[in-house]
Amino acid sequence: MGLRMDNIHAPTVASGPNSTQTNGDGREKLSLPELIAQKDRVWSELSALGSVLDSHGVNMSTPLTTFDGYPRPDLDIAQIRTTRARIIPLKNDYKDLMARIEKAMHEHWENAAAAPPQPPAPAAVSTSQPAAQTAEATRNSRVALEAPFAKVNSVVASSPAATAGLKPGDKITRFGDVDWMNHDKLSKVAQTVQQNEGVAITVKIIRPAATGAAEQRLEVQLMPRHNWGGRGMLGCHLLPL
């Protein structure tokens, strides 16, 4: 019959070192390229852990017990709890890194605007390594600030979402004016949909890579509407990340 477990939903904190040792004051010393690189590492680990939960058919809030309080026999409870426990601090790390990247980018543009114009360098002079790193940080900054905040869980055939080209697994980085900083648990997405019936909304997504390929960053036009033959105005189910 099994043992009843009252605290089964409490995450199990794994022992041992974390992959993101630099935090708090230590991050103040990191350059913008270093912050972006650390953000990418954290996101990669979050994606891998999310895949673990997906493989069990659960998310961060799926109940792990039966209606009468016993562990669900169809789930690997220990692995799910350990995975959830790792995801929680990583999400906090990710939010902290994104806030620091945004602050660093604002400072970068303010300094660039205040600096006097520089004469063009001779064509024969090669770009120094620090200058190349700054240029790379500038190119990556806008992409870094567009962090995914929702995932497309399912798409109904012939729906507005399907017509726009959304697919299950797509991760949304921007939905109109809504992004990772202001989505408010996706409530702003719902508000944007209600305010734009019959109007195309620009949606930016990251599409997972096929085996051996790089992930794709795409932009689609999604027009919310009623009377398309299904429920809601989109025809897709979104999950917060």
UniProtKB/TrEMBL annotation:
SUPFAM superfamilies: PDZ domain-like (SSF50156)
Membrane-spanning segments: none
Ranges of compositional bias, category Low complexity: 123-135
Cellular component aspect of the GO annotation: cytoplasm; nucleus
Chain residue ranges for the region called Disordered: 1-27, 112-139
UniProt cross-references to Gene3D superfamilies, sorted A to Z: 2.30.42.10, 6.10.140.1710
GO biological process, one term: proteasome regulatory particle assembly
Regions of compositional bias (Polar residues) in chain numbering: 15-24
Record key words, sorted: Chaperone
Pfam families for this protein: Nas2_N, PDZ_6
Record-annotated PDZ domain positions: 139-209
Entry's family note: Belongs to the proteasome subunit p27 family.
Protein name: Probable 26S proteasome regulatory subunit p27
Native organism taxonomy: Eukaryota, Fungi, Dikarya, Ascomycota, Pezizomycotina
